[in-house]
């Protein structure tokens, strides 16, 4: 059944949505941490390869996640306004968009991956290992895209538990498959870093089929109307999906830029940064869970024009996020040596990972505010500012600062301090901008409609 998020306690809804979402994202991150762990056991080249290929892999994730946010927003608004027929038509059209994206991403990714790897400085065995990993994942793009789309539809009806459940199962299965595929056995030759990619592809396919099964049993696929192609729905999905997609794509480009400048300081820095990013992602899981729940709550309440509930959603979400961010900051600050050392025995890599992690801890709450306000803007169907803030945060400011830092031969930690400063400036801007937009939307909604 569908959860009506326009009624009842905001705090209760937020907890019911955020906890399973954060739990799911935690296990998803631990999934990636597992891959990083096994890559470190293979070789430093393999560990660096995962960091080097991350920007390309993140591009796939960005497009899938960004467009899925549009699905959640459009379906959620339709449900909030009581138009269930439109919500079901959106589901039909989302499947078409997802299939198109999957094919396009695979073809483009396979074509440009070797070029990008070489631009990032990979050559010889380092390049071969990187391509083994990323090309395997690119051929599995369909599984990633449809998993995001199916989960977006479930999120719109208030079901985040299904995603949590499959991510927990995928985490444990990935451990077994990583060990088997990397080291071989039971008739299988050791596959090294390619085995890590195969394991990811298999578990993602399993996730897609499970989420499809759960959606089939939900209200969204019951008594489906006859499919009628409507350009307006595709246009709406694209209109709502482009800003968050570009936001995430710019984020992947931003990671590419950071990796590019970090490469000036050596392979150990790139490997240490990759470990630090994995650790940082763990601390950000509560923030991601909260942002997903905020999107679902705001979308339905915007459809119902319940603006007081939107204000309350933001208030409660920021309060919860502040507490969780403080805990995460303390964890990263004091436990960085232990956490980083879990992934590598190389003292130089560990040193660089600790530096990154401890500085990144100071940006946690800033990230939380960014995620929360972006979810609000997406939920009220006003996502256009995402493009501009992302362009500044991910591309323009890093290019300016990092070029300056490397030209002046400043130490590598200047890059990490630059990222932290950019995050906090972006958070402050989004707070002021979202407040202004909400006031405008509320005012427009209160105007009488002339017949």
Task: Give structural attributes.
mainly alpha, globular, 451 residues
Topology readout:
Layout: H1 10-42, H2 44-80, H3 84-119, H4 124-138, H5 141-156, H6 161-183, H7 193-216, H8 231-262, H9 267-283, H10 285-303, H11 307-341, H12 347-360, H13 364-379, H14 385-407, H15 413-446
Notes on the structure:
This protein is 83% helix and 0% strand. It has helices at residues 10-42, 44-80, 84-119, 124-138, 141-156, 161-183, 193-216, 231-262, 267-283, 285-303, 307-341, 347-360, 364-379, 385-407, 413-446. Helix 1 runs parallel beside helix 6 (161-183), helix 2 runs antiparallel to helix 3 and helix 2 (44-80) runs parallel beside helix 10 (285-303). The chain contains 15 helices and no strands. The longest helix has 37 residues, at 44-80.
Estimated radius of gyration: 22 Å
Order of helices and strands: HHHHHHHHHHHHHHH
- Assembly type of the chains comes to single chain
Q: Count of DSSP E strands?
A: 0
Beta-strand proportion: under 5%
Distance between the termini: 36 Å
Figure out the total of helices: 15
Structural class: mainly alpha
What's the shape? globular
Largest sheet: none
Average pLDDT score: 84
Helical proportion, percent range: over 70%
- List the uncertain runs: none
